[in-house]
Design a protein that fits this description.
Number of helices: 4
Distance between the termini: 37 Å
CATH topology: Aminopeptidase
Shape: globular
Largest sheet: 4 strands, antiparallel
CATH architecture: 3-Layer(aba) Sandwich
CATH class: Alpha Beta
Structural class: alpha+beta
Bound molecules: coenzyme A
Number of strands: 7
Order of helices and strands: EHHEEEHEHEE
Helix content: 10-25%
Number of domains: 1
């Protein structure tokens, strides 16, 4: 299996609905949420009208099939994104089709999207359920917890300060 990573293109915009749905954490043993969970405005905004200024992302492809995505968006105004920290810091969302998880693809997507973001934004934020194993990946990528909303942890990676304490 050869997985390739490329920039998210306008033609991929419709896929962001699928990847937003796949990004919603389902705790082990629980049934998946119905697809209409995507009607919740706070979730819709991760996929809706993709292509605004500042929108940025990468996708992973197995041949022609897009099997994962990591994307960033400034979510200002209302409703705030789950991982909102300020108007200059975009939020990251990411997910993979189930059978491709746990093989290093997410880490590779993360590295690529952070590379792209580093020249453009002061940092990147996200929100992750406290019991989502993805939190470990985020910690390894340099995200730091900055707050708790319910059982969701807000995490931020600031560019340019990663080596400050080394
Ligand atoms: C999160 C996700 C994009 C990571 O991509 P990946 O290719 O599986 O990750 P990698 O193989 O590069 O890295 C492994 C890490 O991914 C995370 N991970 C692996 N399988 C996972 C799963 N089924 N669900 C959530 N996170 C997972 C863990 O942090 C793991 O670290 P560990 O080895 O210390 O446990 C992917 O697992 C996924 O789509 N998960 C479900 C959706 C989700 O939780 N998205 C994040 C919402 S905040």
């Amino acid at each position: 299996m050869v997985i390739q990573i490329r920039a998210l293109e306008p033609g991929d915009a419709g896929l962001l609905w699928d990847f937003t749905y796949l990004a919603v954490h389902v705790p082990p043993g629980k049934p998946p949420y119905p697809r209409d969970i995507l009607e919740i405005p706070a979730l819709r905004q991760y996929a809706e009208a993709w292509g605004r200024d500042g929108d940025l992302g990468v996708v992973a492809c197995d041949g022609e099939r897009v099997i994962g995505a990591a994307w960033l968006r400034l979510l200002v105004g209302e409703p705030k994104g789950f991982g909102y920290v300020d108007d200059e810091t975009p939020e990251l969302a990411m997910s993979l089709v189930k059978e491709y998880r746990g093989q290093g693809i997410g880490s590779a997507l993360m590295a690529r999207v952070l590379d792209l973001a580093a020249g453009r934004f002061p940092g990147v934020s996200l929100s992750v359920d406290d019991d989502n194993p993805a939190k470990r990946l985020y910690m390894r990528a340099g995200f730091v917890p900055v707050g708790l909303v319910g059982r969701s942890v807000t995490m931020v990676k600031r560019f340019g300060v990663a080596h400050e304490h080394q």
